[in-house]
Design goal:
This protein has 22 helices and 15 strands. With about 600 residues, it is α/β, with parallel strands linked by helices.
Length: about 600
């Protein structure tokens, strides 16, 4: 078996131009137990400073290990985040960043990190959670044991790499009834953007209960590891898959959606891997989630494929610390969004590619929480403060800049503060550099991205790396031009409307929309791109030509356009005026359980 795996691995190394990780002798290779959980940021964990949290097992693990203080998810929701983990590549780079999209990647070129562990003689197991958001390969295919943990098998198949994921902290555990919680609703610290309402406090308490249950599961796994005599040669890692979970955290690239716990306990036998002098230390290094698979391969002496985009952050193979972390947001279930962010240990810079829509949009799953419902009702009653009400309105801000140390809730936008212009310029520059370096696939609307790849019989990964098909520098320039909202740019925006690339035309229309100016000449309502047509129609409606605009949107719905989800979102964004489209919305027959069906249902509830 070992010989076969070595031969498989040699072939992989030749194919991918792999590099060698930390070369521990076979007898010294550590086991790794990766205890993941879901949907919680650092604010829910005791050792990160929440005096009301009840997480004794995680806190104990931190005292025995190394607590990373600056670990950030690249995507603030599960599927894009886990897609990043399994490949070691940002899902934004592969076209797998829209929620539950299952777009394919070239599996002959991109393997999963467990493939390289297996090739190096590791037994690999994963219990309960995959959600890799990638088509063309079953999620379970890369694991020796994709089912319940078999501890005896682990003991007899060392070295092993075992993932155990707790679902107890998942968003679903914060939904439903919030009465009769174990945690006292009085004992919690509300975020600055949440109103102090009974149901909000109770929902906090309900989630504290969920965190307590999750913590107990972490404790059970640690006890089992000890009972099996495996603790002395097993590295234990604990972290969440992204931030969350109450409204305006999960799904959002604010600090609450990105800043996650990360704890690594290293047995004394592997002291040479310590990131500090002794256990119990707090580690100041900036860590991105995309760094993790590459680091696990390095720690195990496994080959590291050169397509992995992270940085090794631990062990003798550690690479220089990055100055900035990169994050992104695309479609979240039925609601369209697009944003990018970079942060260092203090500041967070966000670029909103859709500043004309609200931060918090009605989303079926999010509205299953009492806290979301209560917050929404409070805003609609007119009783909310400016900060509390702000997030239900169109953003208006193309850029946001927050001091995460002094404003951990990210409610004071310092983008216009002259004191921070230099660091903003650095972060703005770095954001562009990172987008170019990873081939940001999201500069086209999602449906156009998928269509262009399919029309050229390519995966999105391949399409965005072909500059003739996807001129990323030009698309970023066009987006930047549109988002600046300057009248002096109208001649250049007009030129974009005549460009042969529909992506360039799309940003030309967006630029006119943000300025509220109709283009001269072609109005875009007959554009071959359905996304361009839809945006041009909204511009007509905004500019007073309601009949033309609504007729165009109606036609798109009737022809079952590939931009149907966009049009349904527009009906919601436009509001009461868009009720003229409800007769045709009611006649739609979207695929069952699709996001189009969810959006149609939302509109039926809102407009009748």
């Amino acid at each position: 078996m070992q010989r076969r795996r070595f031969m498989e691995f040699t072939a992989l190394g030749a194919a991918f131009g792999a590099i060698k990780g930390y070369a521990a002798p076979t007898a010294e290779r550590p086991n790794i137990l990766w205890l993941t959980c879901e949907d919680n940021n650092v604010n829910w964990v005791g050792c990160y400073g929440n005096e009301y949290a009840d997480t004794p097992n995680i806190d104990q693990l931190a005292s025995e290990g190394f607590q990373y203080m600056h670990a950030y998810a690249n995507a603030p929701v599960c599927a894009p985040s886990r897609s990043t983990w399994i490949t070691g590549m940002l899902s934004l780079s592969n076209g797998t960043f829209p929620m539950r999209s299952r777009n394919e990647i070239p599996h002959d070129r991109i393997k999963y990190y467990p493939d390289f562990l297996k090739a190096n003689g590791y037994f690999v197991g994963n219990f309960r959670k995959t959600d890799y958001n990638i088509g063309g390969r079953p999620d379970s295919d890369c694991w020796d044991n994709p089912k319940k943990v078999d501890w005896e098998k682990l003991k007899n198949n060392q070295p092993f790499f075992q993932v155990i994921n707790s679902t107890e902290s998942h968003e679903s555990r914060a939904q439903g009834d919030v009465e009769h919680t174990i945690h006292d609703p009085k004992n919690t610290k509300l975020r600055a953007y949440h109103p102090d309402l009974p149901d909000v406090r109770k929902n906090y308490a309900k989630y504290h209960d969920a965190m307590k249950r999750m913590d107990a599961q972490i404790g059970e796994s640690l006890k089992k590891l000890e009972a099996m005599g495996l603790a002395d040669n097993t590295i234990v890692i604990h972290n969440s898959d992204h931030g969350g979970v109450l409204p305006r955290s999960k799904r959002y690239i604010f600090q609450s959606g990105l800043h996650c716990p990360l704890i690594v306990r290293i047995p004394p036998a592997y002291k040479k891997l310590y990131p500090a002098e002794k256990p119990g230390s707090k580690i100041d290094r900036l860590v991105s989630f995309v760094d993790m698979p590459k680091t696990w391969l390095s720690l195990t002496g496994s080959e590291i494929p050169n397509y992995m985009q992270g940085t090794v952050f631990l062990g003798p193979g550690a690479e220089p610390e990055k100055e900035f972390h990169f994050a992104f947001r695309g479609r979240m279930d039925e609601r369209l969004e697009s944003a990018r962010a970079v942060c260092n240990k203090r500041f967070l810079f966000i670029r909103n590619y859709m500043p004309y829509v609200p931060w918090v949009q009605h989303l079926d799953y999010l509205w299953k929480m009492k806290a979301t419902q209560a917050w929404d009702s409070h805003v609609k009653s007119g009783k909310a403060s400016e900060v509390q009400a702000r997030f239900f309105k169109p953003k208006g801000w193309t850029e946001e800049f927050y001091d995460m140390q002094n404003d951990p809730d990210n409610v004071t936008n310092l983008i216009d503060n002259p004191e921070y212009q230099q660091v903003q310029a650095q972060m703005r520059k770095n954001l562009r550099q990172q987008q170019l370096a990873v081939y940001d696939a999201g500069l086209l609307p999602e449906s156009e991205m998928i269509k262009r790849a399919a029309d050229n019989q390519l995966t999105i990964y391949e399409m965005v790396r072909n500059q003739k098909l996807y001129d990323l520098p030009a698309l970023i320039d066009a987006a930047d031009l549109a988002l600046e909202e300057k009248d002096e740019h109208l001649p250049m925006l007009g030129k974009l409307l005549k460009h042969p690339d529909c992506g360039m035309r799309y940003w030309g229309v967006v630029g006119h929309f943000l300025l509220g100016k109709l283009p001269e000449g072609d109005d875009g309502l007959s554009d071959e791109s359905h996304e361009v047509r839809a945006m041009a129609a909204w511009l007509q409606i905004k500019s007073g030509s309601r009949d033309k605009g609504f007729q165009c949107l109606e036609n798109l719905l009737k022809q079952k356009s590939y931009a149907t989800l966009t049009v349904l979102n527009m009906v919601d964004w436009i509001g009461a005026d868009a009720t003229v489209l409800m007769p045709v919305v009611r006649t739609l027959e979207p695929e069952k359980k699709s996001y189009e069906e969810r959006m149609r249902s939302n509109l039926m509830k809102r407009f009748g």
